[in-house]
Amino acid sequence: MNTIITIFLFLIPIFLLLTRRKRSSGRLPPGSLGLPIVGQSLELLWAMQANTAEQWLQKRIRKYGPISKINLFGKPSVFIYGQAANKFVFTSDSSTIVNQQVKSISSILGDRCLLELIGKDHKRVRDALVSFLKPESLKEYVGKMDEEVKKHLEMHWHGKQQVKVLPLMKTLTFDIICSLLFGLGRGTRRDKLFIDFQHMIDGMWSVPVNLPFTRYNRSLQASARAQKLLKGLIGEKRVDLQKGASPRQDLITCLLSIRNEKNEQVISEKEIIHNVKLIMVAGHDTSSVLLTFLVRLLANDPAIYAAVLQEQEEIAKNKPNGELLTWEDLAKMKYTWRVAMETLRLFPPVFGGFRKAVKDIEYGGYLIPKDWQIFWVTGMTQMDNSIFPEPSKFDPTRFENPESIPPYCFIPFGGGPRICPGYEFARIETLVSIHYLVTRFTWKLLSDNFFSRDPTPVPTKGLPVQISPRKLL
User: Is 113 annotated as a binding residue?
Assistant: First the structure.
């Protein structure tokens, strides 16, 4: 009898576990996980290349509803979208979901960057980055940004009849990052880093199969070379700091200088390297895409171009003898920034993102199992007719009163505690660049307007334009 009771007591938890699993699996979102590892990754990547990713996702929504399971980049995932999804992603704390990128991104950028850190570690590293990137600190760098933009135009635009905008915008944003954030001057090292950086980006959204012929493998190798170069640069900055260099001369030096009450370095060398690589990607790719599509949209809309030019010429008139732009000048560029925001709405550089469930989560009537990936897409709310009437129309007046836009419907820089710390840096970079482009050049497009996603929007021919110089005021 005792044996029967013992067996019965032993079987109870097993029975409860099995019934719980059966009940949970029945509450999973509809959909298919597809083939192991690959899943629907290639389908999504092909759709992005063809610029039909939103249509591909809409087809899933019509078939499965607003929540569905999917397998992306080697992990079972749940796809969610909409205002509620955006709010869920940006307001949930680390006890519910955490930042965890797909393996390809985390392997290339590193596991100690902001995209991977949670809790106290995330706050510690973020606070360190914000100490350099906050508006009060960046005011003194407007002049340096001005000089970098004018130098770029002198080297790559003046005297030319035709240019390809996207490659040049990538060069410009990379040079600005290297000079202002990393203190890395022009030369062989910067050129090598630029090449490795391009290869590094190529495999960030890829199936994580590490074989010699894959983009993922090439990106890993490029990331390792970039990391070695950055390690050497950090060593040089550490020596400069010991010799009395200003802690504010660049971001790397600033991070090295931050110490606690025990005089210990707050940010480790590994964290500096991984976050420098993250900033290279975030500050380079997104800003170059924004500037490229601004040039494209201004070419297609003479009225918008004329209004931007008028605003910028008013500022230029008050800058005799080639004086540098100031923080106060940027504050006057209100219309230009509204044009930039509308460009971000129509052509978001970031397609979507990933999180990880740290426990079983009830969402929208379904279960998101622990350790599953959460895939969300920002741009689908930005093209929602119920939120933005006539969403395909380019209309900067939408941003005259930002408070009229429902929360979590337009989030080009993220939201909540994970809002992009480089937001203000991107704003300065964009406004200074557009100021000199429109006051010094006119242009017209030389090719069709088609673009693909890789994963950022990329004009298929690099957006070639015919340019003509304008007379300086």
Answer: no
